[in-house]
Amino acid sequence: MTTYTIISALVLAIPAVFIYRKIFAGSANPTSTGATAGTSEKAQEEPKTIMQPPPDDLAPPKDDPFTLEQLKPYDGSDPSKPIYVAIKGTVFDVSRKRETYGKGGSYNLFAGRDASRALGMSSLKEQDASPDYSTLSESDMKVLNDWHEFFSKRYSIVGKVVDLPPAVANL
To answer: What is the span of the domain harbouring residue 113?
Structure first.
């Protein structure tokens, strides 16, 4: 084997390896080319979301009785007290999101009460913040049920509302 043959083999092998990597390894690893490495890394990052995964440190559910009047002090106005939100009669401790449900928070309307109707309607209006959700449409009921499921996975259950309006007391 001559030096010329070895050099010729290397000259042919380098493009062959490059083409092989481009065709076969390129589909498995989109960052294999230098020109797209910076943008592909960003594209491969997990998309950002405002939704946090459910916590794994929820307290066991409690069944403490609350009247609608007894819920009122848990509206976030007193920083020494927890913040409670009731949905369909289930009372959740949302204190871990004080900035959202506390005084001045974007969802403070729901704190210290059962505002199931407003949640089902996706409303932030005071007049909709009622525990009576019996008149909700089917689609609004689905929204309300989705909220109840969401809260059940993310916040500790601390009790039940015992004086819901008769129209929803047994739902």
So the answer is: 64-161
CA–CA separation, 82 and 75 (whole Å): 8
User: Looking at the structure, do residues 22 and 94 belong to the same domain, yes or no?
Assistant: no
Are both 89 and 38 inside the same structural domain? Answer: no
Q: What is the DSSP letter of 122?
A: T
Asked whether residue 17 is assigned to any structural domain, the reply reads yes
pLDDT (tens, 9 = 90+) of the chain, 171 residues, equals 676 666 666 566 676 666 656 666 554 444 444 444 454 455 556 555 555 666 777 888 899 999 999 999 999 999 999 999 999 999 999 999 999 999 999 999 999 999 999 999 999 999 999 999 999 999 999 999 999 999 999 999 999 999 999 999 887
Contact 95, 82 (CB under 8 A): yes
Residue 102 falls inside a structural domain: yes
